[in-house]
Amino acid sequence: MEEQNNCKCCGFLMNHGGHKMVKIILVVLVVLIIGRMLFGNHGYNKNDLQKDTIVVSGKGELTVKPDIATISFSVLEEDLDVAKASDTVNSIVARIVVDLKTNGVDEKDIKTTGYNIYPRYDYINSKIYPYSGVQVLAGYNVSQSITVKIRDLSKAGKIISNLGEMGVTDMSGLTFTNDKYDDLVKQARDEAIVQARDEANKLAKALGVRLVKIVGYSEGGNYPIYYDRAMVSSAPMGKGSNEAVLPAGENKITSNVSITYEIR
Q: Which domain holds residue 26?
């Protein structure tokens, strides 16, 4: 009789507490499965520990003579008749292009960078009402901006002097650079990488470790210093002006790299 009572108690527990326990276990299993699906296996793994690294740097530097000069200028004309102003600008630019070609500048190196037409107004005070006035059209400004690339540096001074004599109203941005500039930057960078690699090998030998692989890389550089706007006057030069003297100097191209190696 007592045995039957015990069986009934167990059955009661199984029917009530047992189902609740099964539900808890199922919920825990579902949570574990979802967590594994979302986050993967992020448990302890000796390969996930922070790896030992060393950082080395290298510097590559080139000093080269410029082989190209670039100059920017504008031609500006104002007239109440916009067509006349435009014709004047076109005429001046046409003469400039002929002169540039005569001095060895290729047509592909003469580039228009801007062409603008806009009205200019004067403000006239009223004689009747001292604090009022009207805007009166003073004229239309027509301007064309051009950039020229000069490959024969021996003619740069003559070209710039001629521009001043042919109605150029603004001249600026003279720079001396190199036609193969990107290749020179790559050459400087390659030298910097070789230097950094040699430094890494020496450091690894001194530390008694082995280089495994590159795990980080960055680079930067110092770019050539060009002549700025102050080197060329923006005011027109009159006829008979002496040819501009333009020493080109040298360009220094620098590349700095930083490489991080994993070591063991």
A: 2-45
